């Protein structure tokens, strides 16, 4: 009878984590970044690829780490989902001073710290993060992330990152790229409205010149030329069929 209950318990766990990556056996024990320097690791990171996590759906996912006065680390997690920007703040701490690259992270008072290990980073471009939780050494659920200081990484960097994970027996075959397009923070400029004809344009130029309004000429010229098929849209976003 007891065995049945244990199996039902395990089965429930497996089902509840089935959207995650789950494997039999205990967690792998990867190497972490030697001489990890927390201060250089702080700041903004963009998510490039990850093992799918149910609580992390969305696009334009970014994380900003900063040190609080009490020496804990604030982890601000920003993502866009269904057109809305969602922000969550968590706390990370170094759990054992002798292993500074093994952080723990929690997003509420009630949840225990989950592992948040820095496997490898150059601090300036890329970081490989790993988190694994095991259940009675029977199976484990893991998360892995490739983050970057910019919204994209060259394919060979991603390839190399996956090799590093694989070398440590971390299965990254189910890693998925994170869409970093269309961030509400760096929206492209919409083309300004230009309802006039070309001869109107030259007439306005003459008029603005006569009154010495050179700023107006400049603005108007940018607007006008962004509507011409010159192959250069002067930094304005152009609908595809117009290119
Ligand atoms: C990250 O968070 C810190 C502390 O809240 C803030 O001062 C900083 O401007 C943030 N950085 C970015 C790039 O958003």
TrEMBL record:
Pfam families assigned to the protein according to its UniProt record, in alphabetical order: OTOS
Compartments, as annotated in UniProt: Secreted
Q: What InterPro entries does this protein's entry cite?
A: ApoD_vertbrte, ApolipopD, Calycin, Lipocalin_CS, Otospiralin
Q: GO terms for CC?
A: cytoplasm; extracellular region
Q: Which UniProt keywords apply?
A: Disulfide bond, Glycoprotein, Lipid-binding, Pyrrolidone carboxylic acid, Secreted, Signal, Transport
Instruction: Write the signal peptide boundaries.
Output: 1-19
One GO MF term on file is: lipid binding
Which SUPFAM superfamilies does the record cross-reference, listed alphabetically?
Lipocalins
* GO BP, one annotated term: lipid metabolic process
The organism's superkingdom is given as Eukaryota
Q: What is its main location?
A: secreted
Family that this chain belongs to: Belongs to the calycin superfamily. Lipocalin family.
Mind telling me which PANTHER family this protein's record contains?
APOLIPOPROTEIN D
Protein name stated in the entry: Apolipoprotein D
Lineage of the species this protein comes from: Eukaryota, Metazoa, Chordata, Craniata, Vertebrata
């Amino acid at each position: 009878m007891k065995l049945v209950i244990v199996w039902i318990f395990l089965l429930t766990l497996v089902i509840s984590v089935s959207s995650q990556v789950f494997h039999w056996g205990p967690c792998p024990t990867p190497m972490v970044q030697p001489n990890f320097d927390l201060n250089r690791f702080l700041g903004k990171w963009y998510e490039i690829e990850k093992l799918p996590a149910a609580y992390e759906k969305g696009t334009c996912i970014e994380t900003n780490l900063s040190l609080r006065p009490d020496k804990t680390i604030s982890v601000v997690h920003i993502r866009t989902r269904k057109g809305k920007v969602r922000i969550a703040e968590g706390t990370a701490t170094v759990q054992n001073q002798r292993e500074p690259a093994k952080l723990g992270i929690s997003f509420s008072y009630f949840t225990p710290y989950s592992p948040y290990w820095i496997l490898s980073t150059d601090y300036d471009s890329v970081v490989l993060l790993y988190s694994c939780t095991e259940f009675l050494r029977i199976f484990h659920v893991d998360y892995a992330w490739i983050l970057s200081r910019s919204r994209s990484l060259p394919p060979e960097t991603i390839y190399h990152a996956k090799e590093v994970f694989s070398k440590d027996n971390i299965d990254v075959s189910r890693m998925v790229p994170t869409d970093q397009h269309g961030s509400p923070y760096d929206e492209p400029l919409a083309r300004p409205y230009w309802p006039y004809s070309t001869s109107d344009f030259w007439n306005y130029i003459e008029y603005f010149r006569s009154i010495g309004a050179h700023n107006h000429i400049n603005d108007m010229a940018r607007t006008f030329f962004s509507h011409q098929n010159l192959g250069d849209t002067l930094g304005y976003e152009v609908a595809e069929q117009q290119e």
